Amino acid sequence: MDKISIIVPCFNEEDVVSMFYQETTKQLHRIPDIDYELLFINDGSKDHTASVLKELAEKDSHCFYFTFSRNFGKEAAMFAGLEKATGDYVVIMDADLQHPPRLLPDMYHACKYEGYDCAAGKRVDRTGEGRLRNFLSHSFYKVIQKLTKMDMDDGAGDFRMMSRQMVDAILELKEYNRYMKGLFSFVGFDTKWIEFHNVQRAAGNSKWNFSKLFAYAMEGMFSFSTAPIVWIGNIGTAIMFLSILMTLFGLLVHVTSMFHLVCLILFLSGLQMLFVAILGQYTTKDYMESKQRPIYIVKETSKNLS
Ligand code: UDP
Ligand code: MG
To answer: What is the Cα–Cα distance from 90 to 37, expressed in whole angstroms?
Structure first.
């Protein structure tokens, strides 16, 4: 009998966790001949998520929780879930019911009987989201697709069922700076896309704000692409050629202007600062990796720590 593990990162989700549990359990019961486990990763919630999860774990032997010692972020929570999952198929789902549990039977069918390693939900619209966020997200994915040459589609989130083989491949990637959408794409495997319409969060608030989203976008960019470094080289070379041409021009025509010189110096130093900042992105990533810090720390769990 196959076992399905459902990983649920939770950060201040007291309003919605019980609803999630009920709906997901209902959908799992539609799949014949399976066992399942629900692994709630409590990512340092400050509300009563921990006590709600404790109650669920006491009531239902399919439910387990892992409470982090602080908020480590959704990426860390997903990684913890993948490490703790014991199922033959593993699903990652948001707690707020924005990832419709009704897709679970179709996902299982795709993985089990249609020969796919992964069945992933793909959101076909972004109704209900702010226009600006919509536009920025869309542009970000366009840029990142071009830069990284990897398949990271707008609308393709973390909601997916994966085979044990694919999960093990992702667990091999132990980098500290994690960007799961990139990692899914990096490990490859055959993915079936199952489309769904955007749904509003069932309760509670989104944990993302613009600065968090911007940081996340940068993570994706710098973790998966070295293209900016190539740009630096190209622009630097172009500037060098330009300065040589200008010197030659200066030899032919008499030009003296202090103002122009100051402008040039300012322009070049500004450019250099920008380049140093880009380079800095890569060195800080390397710095964090070299520390080999744990990706998360579990403070309390309903399962024996392995
Ligand atoms: N989440 C988390 N840690 C965080 C932020 C979010 O575990 O630091 C979880 C959150 O509880 C939810 C999922 O990640 O289950 C998606 O978060 P949210 O719904 O706030 O994001 P959005 O749907 O607005 O992109
Ligand atoms: Mg959400």
So the answer is: 10
SS3 annotation, 68-127 = ECCCCCHHHHHHHHHHHCCCCEEEECCCCCCCCHHHHHHHHHHHHHCCCCEEEEEECCCC
Alpha-carbon 294 to chain mean position = 18
* Exposure string for 209-229, b = 16+ CB within 10 A, e = fewer: eeeeeeebbebbbbbbbeebe
Q: Is the CB of 96 under 6 A from ligand 1?
A: yes
Intra-chain end-to-end CA distance of the chain, in Å: 23
pLDDT digits (tens, 9 = 90+) for 237-246: 777 777 777 7
Question: Structure tokens of 270?
Answer: 């500004």
Whole-Å CA distances, 301 to 56, 68, 123: 13, 9, 33
Counting ligand 1 atoms within 8 A of each CB, the residue from 7, 11, 211 with the most, and so the one to mutate, is 11
Measured between alpha carbons, how far is 113 from 110 in angstroms, rounded to an integer?
6
On the CB side of 287, CA atoms within 13 Å amount to 6
Query: Does ligand 1 lie within 6 Å of residue 37's CB atom?
Result: no
180: left (phi over 0), alpha (psi -120 to 50) or beta: alpha
Ligand 2 center to 213 CA (angstroms): 13
For 71-124, how does the pLDDT look when each residue is reduced to its tens digit (9 = 90+)? 998 989 999 999 999 999 999 999 999 899 999 999 999 999 998 999 999 888
The two three-digit tokens of residue 199, written as one number: 């749904």
Q: Is 13 in the pocket of ligand 1 (CB under 6 A)?
A: yes
pTM for the predicted model, two decimal places: 0.76
